[in-house]
Every structure is written in C-alpha cells, then in structure tokens.
Give the backbone structure.
Amino acid sequence: MSVSSTIPKLSVCIPTYNRLPQLRRLLKALLPQLTASCELVILDNCSSEAVEPGIRDLIEGFTACEIRIIRHPVNVGGNANILRCFEVARGEWVWPFGDDDLPTDQAVATVLEEAQTEPEVIFINFRSNILDLTGTSRTMTVSADGLEEFVKAWDNFSNLLFISAGLYRRTAITSKICFAYSFIDTCGPHLALLMITLIKTGGITRFSQRKTIEWALPEDGEQWDHSVVHKRLLRLLDLIPTSELRELWYQKISTESPPPIRSLLSLFKFVVSKKGQLEPVREQLEMASYLAVMLPGYRLRAPLIWLTAYSASFFWLPFYLVWLSVPSSHPQSLSRYGQEPDIMTQFLANKRG
C-alpha cells in the first residue's frame, strides 16, 4: 500500500497479537470515526495467523484515511510493540490503542479537537472508565509543566499507564526512544518515554476531563499479575531525580495497590531510599528478590540472603509471609498487548499453579 506524502494530524496505532475477534470489534467501532486528518497503523506482532486476511473485509474500499498493516517477522514482545507505535507513526500525534478496547462515540473528533493546542503540550491523558471503576473524580482539565508538576498532577496511575488513554506529540518525544528501550521490562515503556522527554526537554502534560475510551475488563486468565507488574514498574523510579519526588510517586502508586502489594512496594521503597548504602551488595539483593519471586519454596530462605547481605532486622520476614499470600494469574496475563509469556513467567506459573 502506497504511503501518502501528506503528514496526518493523528496516528492511531494498534499493537496486536492473536486477538482477531477483539481487533475486528474495535475496527467496526473505530473506522467510521476516522477522517482524512488521521492514519491507522496496525502492528501485528507476528500473530500465529496474519492479521491482514482476517480484517480485509473491513478495510477494503475504506478511503477516509490511510491504513497501514505492519507485520513483524518475529514476535518482538508486547512492550517493544508498544514502542514500535512511536517509531512507525507519521502523524504529529500518536494515539496507541489497545486491540481489545473501544472508543466512545465521537472519540476521534474529541482527540483531534484536543490536539489543536499550544505546541508546548506533549501529552494528554483522557478519562476512561478506569476512573469510574476506581472512584476517581476528574471534573476539570489540569495541566502540568515539567516532570515535578506531572507527578503531582496525575490522579490515577492505572489510567496513566493505560495505553489507550494517552495521546503523545510524536514530534516531541520520538528522539528519546533509544532511552525508553532501557525500560522495556517495566510494563510501562510508553510512560518511560514520556518521563524521559520531560526530564530532557520539558513540556506540558494535560489531564483531560473528556472521556474517549472504554477499557475492556480482562477475561479470566488475562489479568495482569499485580505482583509482577508493580515490581517492574518500580524501575521507573530511577527516572525521578529527587528523593522527595520519588517519595510522592511511591505514595500515589501504593494507594492504588492491593494490601499485599503495598508490602512489596514498602520493601522496594526502603531499598531505593538506601540505594547508596546498598550499592556494594546490590547484586545479592537483586538475586534474592528475583529468586523469591520465581521460586515459592525459596521465599522462606531468601530473607537469610537479605539479612546476610545487609545487616538488617527481621523486618524482612513478615514481608515474605505477606508475599506468600499474593495471588498469581495465568501466564496469559502478559499476552494482553501482544507478548508471549516468557520462559521465566511460564516457570513461575507452573511452580505456583
């Protein structure tokens, strides 16, 4: 398919993997809303069956905007597939869109209208039903200048992490993708990309009261494993320059976490706060925590390594008892945005049932 020389205002990018029914449902709702100011890019993460034949009847003869389907020759992983959206998009703005989510009526028109904003705005987070489900009230649009105000302004981390609720000014952030790949394992590489941009070049972020998206409640077996996700997300703390801001970031994310996960966050908060003191034994600490995650039988022995590596009190032992109560989900949880469960995740699921 030929690529137009005209630069679109908006690139709607859908990373997908082995979810043809959900993708077809999305396209039926989305295609009627697209205009000549848009382009639609579908990133097929080497699905078992190629996506294009399965949606051909929906896109044949569609002329409202350009449609591109990019099929990766290998599965690059779900997080990398999200970052690929920013690489292949041609529009001024990028709207990553989960293949199982649905736009509200007039969602594209709303996004295009909000995109007509001052050039300093590099990110807009829209309302979704996640705010409704969590009881978060957003009755007015709030803007924030720079990283510190961004951390202070966001009202719901789940909605912030939700890829379909975010609109990104591609021309402001794509030059930082090389740094974002260093955070590919965080379950939030798109958020890392935004934070890196705010650190390096600054910019205004906006939290809009307008709703554009309906988050699809995950089916049984497809829920994220909270213990894995929150542990990985804590790597984003490395991007925050001051201890006061890290403390605030931690407090805001922990209030949204289940009680057992708060214990996990408390542990890592302590480690982060003691980062300089713990540096000499960092490898031992990391090995103990990873083994504790992977091997349930090892969790009761892991505190001995922690206590040996860092002469701490028996504060660690209650944490591991709490950790034993953290529920685990099926490894399909990591397939949500087009990623096969890796060997470690499969091993963990087998060990934990």
